[in-house]
Structures are given as structure tokens and as C-alpha cells.
Specification:
Helices cover about 30% and strands about 25% of the residues. It is an alpha+beta fold. It has one domain: Peptide deformylase (Peptide Deformylase). The strands form two sheets. A five-stranded antiparallel beta sheet has the order 1-2-3-6-7. A two-stranded antiparallel sheet has the order 4-5. The radius of gyration is 16 Å and the shape is globular. The structure holds nickel (II) ion.
Length: about 170
């Protein structure tokens, strides 16, 4: 188990399209375990491989509520098979945009196909927070951040603040 450094925006590594995984092997399994440890430690409810500098179509989520047992999902090469016309708005945050939040509208329900940690094809129907979380993490695989769903004005305010915080860190 290892904790991986999480990349904070703005960073070109968060804007690239991640590559499909040919086969889920021990290396991929280790990466997903490390991503889960990193996500729980942050703490967060989702993490995509590009956020730790790995340009592969891999993500982990755990949307169990407080008091519920952990429910980690290891998701490789996810594809949306269908989504509802009904939408929901969540106030989203992101481990790569620390301390910033914005309302984002997404389909309320999705049907998803992916490879699990044993390279088996799985189909999952998700709604509520899990649906939103998976869609948010899938965006990362295509270089999209939640701020790309809001107005340019709001996005630029957040990105400028993050860039400024980064400069302050470097000079501190
Ligand atoms: Ni995120």
C-alpha cells in the first residue's frame, strides 16, 4: 500500500486523454489498491488515474455513507451504455481542485460497462451520488474537470486562485 501524490490543477496532466487498459494485471490491481488508499486518506469518494499522473482509463470510487461498510469499486475502461433524461445537480468538489465547489448538472442515472479488478466485464446501474461520482471520475479520463461544466467566468476564478496558491507554495 502506498499513498500517491495527487496532482492539483492547473496542470497539463489533468487535461490529457487517458489510454485504454489492454488487460487488468497485477500492476493495475496494485495501482487501484494504492489509488483507494490515497482516496480514503485524502479523504475523497472518487479518484481517477490521471489525478496521480497515470494516463490510463482507471478509476476508483466509494460512495458508502457514514456508518455504512466500505464499498470500494475498481473500474477499468468504463463506458456509458445509457443515461437518464432526468438530471440532478450536486455541489461537486475534486481532490485536484482542493477547497473549491460548484453545482454541476448531470444525468441522474447511468448504465455502465467496465472491467473489474479480475479483468471481468461488469454492468452496473447507478443513481444518486454514485452516478454523479462515476461520471465525474470518467470526465477525468478525457481531461475534463468539473469546472469545465460551469461558466468560464466561475472556472477562471477558481483556476486563478489555485494557480496563485501553487505559486505561494513554491516561494514559501
Ligand atoms: Ni475529480
Amino acid at each position: 500500500m502506498a499513498l500517491l501524490p495527487i496532482i492539483v490543477a492547473p496542470d497539463p496532466r489533468l487535461k490529457t486523454k487517458a489510454k485504454r487498459v489492454e488487460h487488468v494485471d497485477d500492476e493495475t490491481r496494485q495501482l487501484m489498491d494504492d489509488m483507494l488508499s490515497t482516496m480514503y486518506a485524502a479523504p475523497g469518494i472518487g479518484l481517477a488515474a490521471p489525478q496521480v499522473g497515470i494516463a490510463k482509463r482507471i478509476l476508483v470510487v466509494d460512495c458508502a455513507k457514514d456508518g455504512e461498510p466500505p464499498n470500494p469499486l475498481r473500474i477499468v475502461n468504463p463506458e456509458i451504455l445509457g443515461s437518464s433524461d432526468e438530471v440532478v445537480i450536486y455541489n461537486e468538489g475534486c481532490l485536484s481542485l482542493p477547497e473549491h465547489y460548484a453545482d454541476v448538472e448531470r444525468p441522474a442515472k447511468i448504465k455502465l460497462r467496465y472491467l473489474d479488478h479480475q479483468n471481468e466485464i461488469r454492468v452496473l446501474e447507478a443513481e444518486g451520488l454514485l452516478s454523479t461520482c462515476i461520471q465525474h471520475e470518467m470526465d477525468h479520463l478525457d481531461g475534463t474537470l468539473f469546472v469545465d461544466h460551469i461558466t468560464a467566468l466561475k472556472r477562471n476564478i477558481i483556476l486563478r486562485k489555485l494557480a496563485k496558491a501553487k505559486r505561494a507554495k513554491v516561494t514559501a
